[in-house]
């Protein structure tokens, strides 16, 4: 986020794409952001949040460790990927130190994402005062407990600040995993301080109870409560506006949000997705926006830790390209981010990839943010990533 801005990948791009011009867009006096998130995703929006974006493991891990070290009352860490490597050991030291200082420290890890972790590591966490739960180990349950998974990545400290995004607890975000000449995985996370952190904490509490086998209340399942702040006006509310969207099995919340963004976009939709296998409805939404003059750009990995996923992604290229969607493949070790930026105004940072597992089956968590300054920073990051990517102008050979 603090790097110098790099040249654009295409010299003939229209000047309207500039992040600076996005930051200058006038706020619209419409309470649409908060109302739309509530109606399509059951998410409350809160104003007055401080938001910081990160695009690499080092800065994200530093921010997370700093939060844990400053904890006074509570630490809640939810991790799909949890490893006992150097990064995992660093977190274990910080978590146990916080517990010894009197904070209530809880860690929720997914059984699939933590496969191969040493029992000694887990015993060390518990012996150090950390309350640890494992989400959905195999058992005599529907689908043998293998689906859905808890694919979320979330840290909340004292209910006042948190971090969420796509980064797991592992060394691949520091030094790579796939190539012989390894490079850190590219990703995106966001640190949020303010009232939205309380929504993040409530989201953790719900998954914590699910991991213990508790079912949500009927009122929660059927959405009987009233929204909070649904009439927020972005023209007058204190920035940044943040809504925390919880993806749940068969709710399709992120998919509906993409349709809303595609319908509302006037200038640009820039997406990054590590495992892009969209539904035909999502493809149509992007193609329709591109056909209507919206600058639709998609960034995906050029090399993936799941090659089968990359093959499926490329199967959508022809239909997207011929409708005007522009596609880039990341040249580095792995592009793992799950983001969207719309009109230099709205951004999404989270754990949800645009594929059936992410949109329809797993538990996910995404932060939706309306703030021109933050969106301009996100656009700068995205353009720098395109500089390190290859634009796909025709369908690659199989």
How would you characterize the overall build of this protein?
Residues 1-29 have low confidence and may be disordered. The chain has 14 helices and 16 strands. It has one domain: Endonuclease Chain A (Endonuclease, Chain A, 2-Layer Sandwich). Strands 1-9-15-14-13-10-11-12-16 form a nine-stranded mixed β-sheet, with helices on both faces. A seven-stranded mixed β-sheet has the order 2-8-7-6-3-4-5, sandwiched between helices. Helices cover 34% and strands 22% of the residues. The relative contact order is 0.18. It has 398 residues and is of the alpha+beta class.
Short synopsis of the structure:
The protein has 398 residues and is α+β, with helices and mostly antiparallel strands. The chain is built from 14 helices and 16 strands.
List the helices and strands and how they pair.
Layout: H1 19-23, H2 32-41, E1 45-46, E2 50-54, H3 57-69, E3 74-79, H4 86-100, E4 104-110, H5 119-127, E5 131-135, E6 153-157, E7 161-165, H6 172-175, E8 189-193, H7 196-211, H8 218-222, E9 241-247, H9 253-264, E10 268-273, H10 280-291, E11 295-301, H11 307-314, H12 317-321, E12 326-330, E13 338-342, E14 346-350, H13 356-361, E15 364-370, H14 372-387, E16 389-392
Helix pairs in contact: 2-9, 3-4, 9-10
Please count the helical segments. Answer: 14
Unreliable spans: 1-29
Strand order in the largest sheet: 1-9-15-14-13-10-11-12-16
What is the fourth-level CATH superfamily?
Answer: Endonuclease Chain A
User: Structural class of the secondary structure composition?
Assistant: alpha+beta
């Amino acid at each position: 986020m603090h790097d110098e801005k790099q040249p654009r990948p295409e010299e003939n791009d229209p000047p309207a794409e500039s992040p600076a011009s996005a930051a200058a867009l006038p706020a619209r006096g419409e309470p649409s952001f908060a109302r739309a998130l509530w109606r399509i995703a059951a998410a409350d929006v809160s104003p007055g949040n401080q938001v910081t974006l990160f695009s690499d493991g080092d800065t994200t891990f530093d921010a997370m460790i700093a939060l844990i070290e400053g904890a006074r009352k509570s630490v809640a860490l939810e991790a799909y990927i949890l490893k006992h490597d150097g990064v995992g050991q660093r977190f274990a030291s910080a978590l146990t130190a916080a517990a010894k200082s009197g904070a209530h420290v809880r860690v929720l890890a997914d059984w699939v994402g933590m496969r191969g972790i040493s029992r000694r590591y887990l015993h060390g966490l518990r012996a150090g005062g950390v309350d640890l739960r494992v989400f959905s180990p195999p058992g005599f349950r529907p689908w043998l407990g293998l689906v859905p998974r808890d694919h979320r990545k979330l840290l909340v400290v004292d209910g006042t600040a948190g971090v969420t995004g796509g980064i797991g607890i592992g060394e691949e975000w520091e030094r790579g995993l796939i190539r012989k000449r390894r490079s850190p995985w590219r990703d995106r996370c966001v640190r949020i301080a303010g009232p939205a952190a309380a929504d993040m904490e409530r989201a953790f509490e719900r998954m914590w109870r699910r991991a213990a086998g508790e079912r949500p209340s009927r009122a929660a399942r059927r959405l009987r409560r009233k929204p909070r702040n649904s009439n927020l006006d972005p023209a007058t509310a204190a920035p940044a506006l943040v809504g925390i969207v919880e993806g749940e099995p068969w709710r399709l919340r992120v998919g509906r949000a993409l349709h809303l963004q595609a319908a509302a976009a006037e200038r640009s939709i820039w997406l990054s997705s590590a495992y892009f296998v969209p539904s035909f409805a999502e493809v149509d939404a992007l193609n329709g926006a591109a056909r209507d003059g919206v600058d639709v750009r998609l960034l995906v990995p050029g090399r993936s830790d799941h090659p089968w996923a990359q093959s499926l992604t490329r199967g959508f290229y022809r239909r997207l390209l011929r409708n005007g969607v522009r596609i880039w493949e990341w040249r580095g070790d792995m592009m793992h981010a799950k983001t969207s930026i719309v009109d230099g105004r709205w951004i999404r940072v989270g754990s949800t990839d645009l594929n059936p597992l992410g949109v329809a089956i797993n538990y996910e968590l995404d932060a939706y943010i309306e703030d021109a300054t933050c969106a301009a920073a996100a656009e700068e990051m995205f353009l720098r990533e395109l500089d390190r990517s290859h634009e796909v102008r025709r369908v690659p050979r199989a």
